[in-house]
Structures are given as structure tokens and as C-alpha cells.
Design brief:
- With about 80 residues, this protein is an alpha+beta fold.
- It has one domain.
- It has two helices and four strands, in the order βββααβ.
- It has a two-stranded parallel ribbon.
- The longest helix has 11 residues.
């Protein structure tokens, strides 16, 4: 499992026919993308409301899947 926390920002978004958001993450963009891509993710992601890393940490332990949180205090579980 791969997770990160950030903020969804108001403002203009690309009108390219699918959903997209303006985000501010906890790391500079290049560092975030490099660290995210080092984990071998798919090209899809899901955005959720609220700060949920603690719940993902608990879920990772329950289902026995490791969690990597990019740019957060939470370390790999």
C-alpha cells in the first residue's frame, strides 16, 4: 500500500475530460514524484477526504500488507 497526505487547493483545473485536482503535498514536487515512483505504483490513485494515514497504518497491519507513506512521519509498516 502506498499513501501520502496533502491538501486539495481551490483554483482552475485542467479541462481534459477526466477528474483532476490541484494538490499541495508535504514534499517539493520533484522529490515527491521520485519517492512515489521508487515504490513502483500504478498510474492511478484515489483522493480521500481528511487525514487517514493512521487508519491506513491499522489496515496494513490487519491485512498483512506493508504501507509506505511518502512525505509523512509514518514509516514503512
Amino acid at each position: 500500500m502506498l499513501a501520502a497526505e496533502g491538501d486539495s487547493l481551490p483554483g482552475a483545473i485542467l479541462k481534459i475530460g477526466n477528474t483532476n485536482s490541484r494538490l499541495r503535498l508535504r514534499l517539493p514536487p520533484a522529490e515527491f514524484v521520485n519517492r512515489w515512483c521508487e515504490q513502483g505504483p500504478t498510474h492511478h490513485c484515489a483522493l480521500g477526504v481528511g487525514h487517514r494515514l493512521e487508519e491506513f497504518r491499522k489496515l496494513s497491519k490487519l491485512i498483512g500488507e506493508p504501507l509506505v507513506a511518502i512525505g509523512a512521519e509514518l514509516r514503512s509498516c
